[in-house]
Amino acid sequence: MRRDVAQLSDEALLEAVAGNDEAALGELYDRFGRIAYGLALRILRDASLAEDAVQEAFLQAWRGAGTYRPERAKASTWLLTFVHRRAVDLVRREERRRTEPSESLADPAGLGADEEAALGSRRQIVRAALRALPSEQRQAIELAYYGGLTQSEVAARLGQPLGTIKSRMFTGLDRLRGLLAEADFDHA
What we know:
Helices cover 72% and strands 0% of the residues.
């Protein structure tokens, strides 16, 4: 018997998310995505970085929903804490990047044969991992990362609710990270 996630309390939604319920994650995003984005945008003052912070915070919530304790905080507070922390981390990263001396952007001679081979190997690993994802997740990720579309544009292009696209991307990116780790991507 399928539950209607829209009728669940915030806390029950997090419990469903802990059980890997993607619809619950989509509903959670529909409820708090705008507030989360507003918080991140106030901290970061950059729309793209704010989107990244929100996406990473919801991914963290997806992974850590089992650790949520309703007696310690409201669901919204728990979730927005992730957004705040990620946004502050991004501010610090951007500050470091601006204050560190620039290294040379490219070797004038180009990549060596060994570097070209390693790069080709890494590309193959990424392509194989993407092909292993369910088509809905792969399509959303490819449109966003290779097509340069925002999640809202992906939702419009695919005719899906934004929460569904967010959920597919969160889940797909999580699976992609796992597949890349299995393929020992960091050492390829």
